[in-house]
Amino acid sequence: MNKLVEKLKIIEDRIIKEQGEFVLLALFLREDAQDKWDLIVSANWFEEDTKKTLDYLVDKLNGVLEQDDKIQISRVVMLKPSDPFVKSINSVIKAKHGAAHFVNCRFNNLYVKEAIIITSTSSNGQRAS
Questions:
Q1: Is 24 helix (H, G, I), strand (E, B) or coil?
Q2: Global pTM?
Q3: How many whole angstroms separate alpha carbon 80 and alpha carbon 100?
Q4: What is the tens place of the pLDDT at every residue in 63-73?
Q5: Which of 40, 45, 72, 127 is deepest in the core (most CB within 10 A)?
Q6: Where in the chain does DSSP place strands (E)?
């Protein structure tokens, strides 16, 4: 798992240089997920065309992650910074390019077996110049 988190930090750094900061970048292992992680992402720079943004993110993931890493991720979930789930996490967890680790916890009424918060910030996350 540490290897995957370190690779996600590399991807985050590359995206920040091109687009801007993330408001939330995290891995969640849901109770019913069969040991596959949800990659939760939120940023103010996301396009209105969510498919375009998702394609961009997947391209960045594919550029760094190996097959062994990819099979650990069940899905990429893109959320707006105004989403109650994002706001809930950002109100209690502050992390920037780190890895805050939580086990058997509840976030905004969602029970998760594990959560790894790489970035959680209320920064404006505007597009890079």
A1: strand
A2: 0.89
A3: 21
A4: 999 999 999 99
A5: 40
A6: 24-30, 37-42, 73-79, 100-107, 110-120
